[in-house]
Amino acid sequence: MVSFDFLQQLTERFEQPPAAVTPAACTREMTFLSRCERCLRACPHEAIDLRGKVKVLPACTGCGACLTVCPTDAYRLPESGLGDLLAQVEGAVRATGAAVLTCARSRTVREADAVLPCLARAEETLLLGALAAGAREVTLVRGPCETCENAPAMPRFERTVARLTGWAGAVPATRGLRLVREEEAPARPRPRAVEGERRAFFAWMRREGMQVAARMAEEVAAGWSARPDPSPRGTLSAERRLLLGLLRRFPEGEASLPYDPEGPFADLEVDLDACDGSATCVRVCPTEALTQPEDPDAFTLTFQASRCVNCGLCVEHCEPKAIRFAPTVPLPAIKQGTARVAARKPKAHCASCGLPYIPSRATKESGRCKYCGMPDLFPAVPAAEQADGAPDRAGPADPPRDEASS
Questions:
Q1: Is the N end or the C end of the chain the one with fewer CB atoms within 10 Å?
Q2: Mean pLDDT over residues 208-222, rounded?
Q3: What are the structural domains of the chain?
């Protein structure tokens, strides 16, 4: 006989609260140049409004798809917090050496170690957290996707699992990820370590969640100091810091990860001939992965791969198209938080205005800065036309004098 507590718990899982958003953490709020629409495209219910300040509409079902696509972690699910989920998974791994995650609509919720509103809510941090806890296998059990309203969010989650398993050369533990149907779910009872009275169970989860978050935060504290400015711009989210800390738990494998446009990491290449030193890339970067240190003799651009969240704003808004994504991402640079000089170009002096500028492919032949090299928008009127009384840029010519009246 099904208990009332179980039915109540199941009902609560079906009635997930909508996602919450911190507008100040959205790149569209950080810079007017951002036209990011990842959350809008990922949402299966058109429940996100990007007109004006970003907001979540009542149509939100709380599936969590927006959380996994936002590069700056502007979204959150109050009732499906990362700390609680990591605590559930880590407790299961300690008890059985494996973990099972499923969605709230699955028939396997009673056998699962963590139940998500939708598997699309499982980002890299959660999955790597299960593996970093020592899980030899992490099984992801699909629910009845064919009849679920959140089904449009699943293809991206499938790509997330494929991307992580593709990291196996650099992070061998990711070979333990399995995405299966309900009938393929491992049959096993819930670990005794997490059995017990319902309220005590969730109280334990909250305590464990705080401990997990604190333990991981200690790992990433070195090298990441808090900024006095309360604005999220230039900072890394707590979720991002956890992800970096988790990566440090894994032994070294291959030196690089394959680049994925939907992944959490990226590396950049700069075409020095095309770069004009305008530093638009630095101004639009939301995490200060790109910086321009003081250099009186040259334009210098530094890049820190661990701070890059793959938002793509620098590539999108580089006017001379001098920046592109590299085909691989250096894993040691991400783990160690090191920065490198991505570009350094000596300054020259403009042949027209005499001011210093950065020569590029577009200005190399003229020897003039890009502003002096622009075509004159208001060309001078030929002298012959001026003599005929034609209007010039200063205004119409004076009317002829009537000598008879003088």
A1: N
A2: 45
A3: 17-76 (3.30.70.20), 82-215 (no CATH), 256-348 (3.30.70.3270)
